[in-house]
Amino acid sequence: MSAADEKPVETAAPAEEKPAETTPKAPATTSDEPAAADQGDGAGIPGNGSSLADKVEYKVEVKLADMQADPNNPLFSAASFEELNLSEDLVRGIRAMNFRKPSKIQEKALPLLLHNPPTNMIAQSQSGTGKTAAFSLNILSRIDLSILAPQALVLAPSRELARQILGVIEHMGQFMKGLKIQAAIPDPTARGKLYNAQVLVGTPGTVMDIIRKRAADTRQMKILVLDEADNMLDQQGLGDQCTRVQKLLPPKIQTVLFSATFPPQVIEYANRFAANANVLTLAHEELTIEGIKQLYIDIGADQDKYATLLKFYGLMTQASSIIFVRLLSLSNV
């Protein structure tokens, strides 16, 4: 399947692709700033942190690939970013996003992601739990800024989500000198373009085309992240495309897979995609973020959805909202 077959499923503001600056790694330093609420997922709002607060005390269950290891060992948990031995510039980036301490999913995931030698991970995490920041921090900790070649690849089901992830990585790595990030998404003007950034974020079909056309040298690749695996498998062909992309990469790289839900087909796919992985899951009663009410309305035809939406909004008071659609064309009502 070509890149043109990929269909956007959500709308989001694009993030500019521009290099940020850093200095060589140094031991992390502590901050005297007052503590604030845990962060949410996504790019933080400068000076105010993320608009999505992780207020829920999630119970994260850990199943280690090494069956003889103790998941309750303090080495597999981090109550602060300072415990992770991050570079000073990366800690500065975290603070600039107004992140104060790891969320529950980050508390368990980050020590495992950053552990050497690198190990694969399968994690259950939905928006609002800090998953994007978790794998972004791992990526920025592992890449070599002296090498201008792709070393980390993030695959997302839509170009809008890819741009959002790129913005998070760019924001977190803003103090890392020499850092370059590129979006690998459908672009009619990108003919002949080379992809030599240390971090690539894109959609599966486009990334596959880029690699096959030798527009990106993958020999230095260290990390592969698959975000929203359940959404990938819901869209025809994207799961297979991710597998084909993986086969074009070096065999021994760290593979990380995130999914909000773990139905049988996702579990089967995840175990094949990220073999011998550490597994993080949320307790069943905590799969829905507190404060979010979920309703389901079965509407037969697409043309009836807008009228139903107007009636629904007429029954509630909502200052602002985000509406997700299956196709970009459906957003132009």
UniProtKB/TrEMBL annotation:
Residues 79-107 form the DEAD-box RNA helicase Q domain. The keyword DNA repair does not apply. Pfam families: DEAD (PF00270). The keyword Nucleotide-binding applies. Its EC number is 3.6.4.13. A motif (Q motif) lies at residues 79-107. Residues 1-20 have a biased composition (Basic and acidic residues). One of its GO terms (cellular component) is cytosol. It is a peripheral membrane protein. GO terms for biological process: mRNA transport; protein transport; response to cold. Residues 112-280 form the Helicase ATP-binding domain. It is found in: Nucleus membrane; Nucleus, Nuclear pore complex. Residues 1-51 are annotated as: Disordered. It catalyses: ATP + H2O = ADP + phosphate + H(+). GO terms for molecular function: ATP binding; hydrolase activity; RNA helicase activity; RNA strand annealing activity. ATP-dependent RNA helicase associated with the nuclear pore complex and essential for mRNA export from the nucleus. May participate in a terminal step of mRNA export through the removal of proteins that accompany mRNA through the nucleopore complex. May also be involved in early transcription. This is RNA helicase. It comes from Periconia macrospinosa.
